[in-house]
């Protein structure tokens, strides 16, 4: 039985907050169910790994819970978050700019290797 879930945020745009709840909720639920969960934020979604960005986004207007709160909850359940190295250059960031919940970098080669060789299921958003 597969025990690992890889969530790839590729088409999720932080400018559309309603798109952001499901991936982090799914990550938290899967991690709470004792699955190994890795969340890779790439393309425009990579901005969410920058300090201050997710803290300023609310999925529901007027609700106090931020996207960073959703990320923190999934992380607290055991989900690991990864930034795309290409995003650092694209968005003029360094590793020092990443939120504490980010475990580091996962590049395209490592992600594709895990997809092709690993025992995992994949959800993309």
Automatic annotation (TrEMBL):
Domain of life of the native organism: Bacteria
PANTHER family registered for this protein in UniProt: CONSERVED WITHIN P. AEROPHILUM (PTHR34655), PEROXIREDOXIN FAMILY PROTEIN (PTHR34655:SF2)
SUPFAM superfamilies attached to this UniProt entry: DsrEFH-like
Gene3D superfamilies, A to Z: DsrEFH-like (3.40.1260.10)
Protein name: DsrE/DsrF/DrsH-like family protein
InterPro entries reported for this sequence: DsrE2-like, DsrEFH-like
